[in-house]
Amino acid sequence: MQDSNIHDPKILIALDFADRQEALALVARLDPASCRLKVGKEMFTLFGPEFVRSLVDAGFDVFLDLKFHDIPNTVAKAVAAAAELGVWMVNVHASGGPRMMQAAKAALQPYGDKAPLLIAVTVLTSMTGEELHQVGVLRSPAEQVLTLARLTRDAGLDGVVCSAQEASLLKAELGPDFKLVTPGIRPAGSEAGDQRRIMTPEQALAAGSDYLVIGRPITQADDPAAVLAQINRGLAAAG
Ligand SMILES: O=c1ccn([C@@H]2O[C@H](COP(=O)(O)O)[C@@H](O)[C@H]2O)c(=O)[nH]1
Question: Is 221 near ligand 1, meaning CB less than 6 Å away?
């Protein structure tokens, strides 16, 4: 079956590896038409900007998932540095507040249509309502996600990171163009691990997720490329 997402791959593979060669061996088996790549704190800290540039140079759209959270000036400079790497998407924490998000947005203005998409993390998909309470947030995860997503939209950003469990609510409240990037994706039968607010790829797509972040279910599989192809087929059939 032809992959119907070929011009806009929905799956962002989370490259969370301690070993660069292991990551590159996986990347060598992937096609930029079938997936995008996400580089997070582990690989960026180990291998730095050169690693990110090598993926961009290999033709992949790269989501630099460093979740910047700092004072407005620092976050603005960090986001501009990400733009210099040629990444497709970069993120900040929405809980940094509107002034920080506006500063990040303004820092990307000089890049025009070459600017990466700028999104904000709402509530981590590993967190439950009880854990939110423990850090002093008395709303439910869905209420807190919606509050932070509204702030993000009003600050002019392109979308949010949330769980697919909140996707239908956010699409209804914030409209179809506001991008929803959803980690915590678990194909039926796979281990949840530390994730808590999870959905299958097909459920996430049906709920309104624009991009599905998938790490371990693909990267730790015996045949990651086959698992990716299977998930893409499932999405094409569902969509
Ligand atoms: O709320 C969030 C934000 C980011 N992530 C990141 O996504 C991947 C998920 O990997 P899995 O192996 O599929 O669990 C990972 O890099 C996280 O840092 C998230 O999970 N939740």
Answer: no
8 Å CB contact between 163 and 125: yes
Q: Are 39 and 52 in contact (CB under 8 A)?
A: yes
Whole-prediction pTM value? 0.97
Is 11 marked as binding a ligand? no
Predicted-complex ipTM score? 0.99
pLDDT over 90, % of the chain = 96
> Which whole-number Å values give the CA distances from 224 to 28, 143, 176, 229, in the listed order?
11, 35, 31, 9
> C-alpha angle 129/168/10, rounded to 5°?
105
Q: pLDDT confidence of 7, banded at 50, 70, 90?
A: confident
Q: What's the gap in Å between 183 CA and the centre of ligand 1?
A: 5
With 0-12 / 13-18 / 19 or more C-beta atoms within 10 angstroms meaning exposed / middle / buried, residue 50 is exposed
125 Cβ below 6 A of ligand 1: yes
Confidence of residue 6 (pLDDT cuts 50, 70, 90): low
Give me Rg for the CA atoms of the chain. 17
65 flagged as catalytic: yes
Rounded CA-CA distance 152/120 in Å is 7
CATH class, domain 11-238, is alpha beta
